[in-house]
Amino acid sequence: MEHEEIVRRANEIVAPYGLQAEILGDIHSVGVGGDHRTYTPVVNLIGTHPGDEVLARLSTEIGNKLPINRITFQFATKS
C-alpha cells in the first residue's frame, strides 16, 4: 500500500475526532508479521488530545486495518 493511501485511510479513521494523520518522513518501524520482519512507515496523529480511551481505540483500529507498526501523537493545546 502506498503512503498516500495509508494517509488517506488513516485520516478517514481519525477525522471525526478532530485529528489529522501524516507519515513521518522516511522513518520506518520494525515489526513482526508471521515469521518475517516488517518495515512500515510511522503514522503521526496531530491535533488536540481527544482522551486516552479514544487514542487507544484509534491506534488499535489503524494498526489493525493498515500496514502500520507504530503510531505517534503530536498534541496542540486548546486556545
Gist?
The chain has two helices and three strands, in the order αββαβ. With 79 residues, the chain is α+β, with helices and mostly antiparallel strands. The mean pLDDT is 92.
Description:
This protein is α+β, with helices and mostly antiparallel strands and 79 residues long. Helix content is 33%, strand content 43%. The chain contains 2 helices and 3 strands, in the order αββαβ. The model has no long low-confidence stretch (mean pLDDT 92).
Provide the descriptors you would attach to this structure in a database record.
single chain, 79 residues, alpha+beta, three-stranded mixed β-sheet, 2 helices, 3 strands, 33% helix, 43% strand
